[in-house]
Amino acid sequence: MARRRQIYEGKAKILYEGPEPGTLIQYFKDDATAFNAQKKGTINGKGVLNNRISEHVFTLLGGIGIPTHFIRRLNMREQLIRQVEIVPIEVVVRNVVAGSLSKRLGIEEGTPLPRTIVEYYYKDDALGDPMVTDEHILAFGWANQEELHDMADMAIRVNDFLSGLFAGIGIRLVDFKLEFGRIWDNDYGRIILADEISPDGCRLWDIQSGEKLDKDRFRRDLGGEVEAYQEVARRLGLFPEGPDSAVLDLESHRKLRGK
Ligand SMILES: Nc1ncnc2c1ncn2[C@@H]1O[C@H](COP(=O)(O)OP(=O)(O)OP(=O)(O)O)[C@@H](O)[C@H]1O
Ligand SMILES: [Mg+2]
C-alpha cells in the first residue's frame, strides 16, 4: 500500500489521511498506557481486538440511530472513519462505583449507583485530564449548550443500549468513556460519536465471577490482558481473524479460568 500521510499519533492509535477528503484511517496499536501515560506497555494483539470490537459496537449503535464516525473496517488493525473536529471533552458514564470515583469519594468499588452518573473531563494530558462541569465547558466554549445536550443525550442512549448488550453476554457495564466530534454541513456543526469503544475505555466485569475483562487488568498488573479482551470479543460473537485465532482462544479460556 502507498505510504499515507500520518495526521496524529496518540497513545493507542495512529490517524492517517483517508482516501477521500473528510475521511481518516484509524490504526489500532498494541500500545497501552494508564494513569495519564505514567505506566506504559504493550498488549500483543490488543489493536486487532479493539479494532474489531469497536467496529461491532459502532455498527450496532449506528443501527439504533446514533450518528458515528465509523465508515468501515479496512483490515485487522485499520478502519475508515469520518474526520471530525474533536470536542476536547471525555464523557464518562458510570453505573457502578469504580476507579477514580471510588478513590475520590471513598466509596467501595462495586457499589451500584442509584442513578447513572455522567461526568466530563477536559482532554489535556499536561493537566492530567481534569474533571470539569458543564459550566466550564460552556464558559470556555469547548462545546455550546446544544452540543452539550446532544452529547449527554447520546451518552445515555449508548449506556442503555450497551448495558443491555453486555448484560446479555454475562458482562456488567460498570463505566465507559466516549469522545464526540463535530462535522460541518456548511455552517452547521453536528455532533457525532468518535474515537473508539473497546475494553481500553470501558470497565467490563463478568457478572458471575466479578472478573475484570478490561484495561484494569493492565492498570493493576493482574495479567491476562489479551485473554480478557479476547473473551469480550468471543462473547460478542466476534472472532479475531488470522490463523492463530483458534489457538489463542483456547489459551484465553485456560488462562482466565486458571487465574
Ligand atoms: N473521527 C475522528 N476525527 C478526528 N480525530 C479523531 C477521530 N476519532 C478519534 N480522534 C482522535 O484521535 C486520537 C486517537 O488516538 P489515541 O486514542 O491514541 O489518542 P490518545 O493518546 O488517547 O490522545 P488524546 O489525549 O489526544 O485523546 C485521539 O486524539 C482522538 O481524540
Ligand atoms: Mg484515546
UniProtKB/TrEMBL annotation:
Its EC number is 6.3.2.6. Pathway: Purine metabolism; IMP biosynthesis via de novo pathway; 5-amino-1-(5-phospho-D-ribosyl)imidazole-4-carboxamide from 5-amino-1-(5-phospho-D-ribosyl)imidazole-4-carboxylate: step 1/2. One of its GO terms (cellular component) is cytosol. Residues 6-235 form the SAICAR synthetase/ADE2 N-terminal domain. GO terms for biological process: 'de novo' IMP biosynthetic process; cobalamin biosynthetic process. InterPro entries: SAICAR_synt/ADE2_N, SAICAR_synt_PurC, SAICAR_synth, SAICAR_synthetase, SAICAR_synthetase_CS. GO terms for molecular function: ATP binding; phosphoribosylaminoimidazolesuccinocarboxamide synthase activity. SUPFAM superfamilies: SAICAR synthase-like. Keywords: ATP-binding, Ligase, Nucleotide-binding, Purine biosynthesis. It comes from the Bacteria. CDD domains: SAICAR_synt_PurC (cd01415). It catalyses: 5-amino-1-(5-phospho-D-ribosyl)imidazole-4-carboxylate + L-aspartate + ATP = (2S)-2-[5-amino-1-(5-phospho-beta-D-ribosyl)imidazole-4-carboxamido]succinate + ADP + phosphate + 2 H(+). Belongs to the SAICAR synthetase family. HAMAP family: SAICAR_synth. This is Phosphoribosylaminoimidazole-succinocarboxamide synthase.
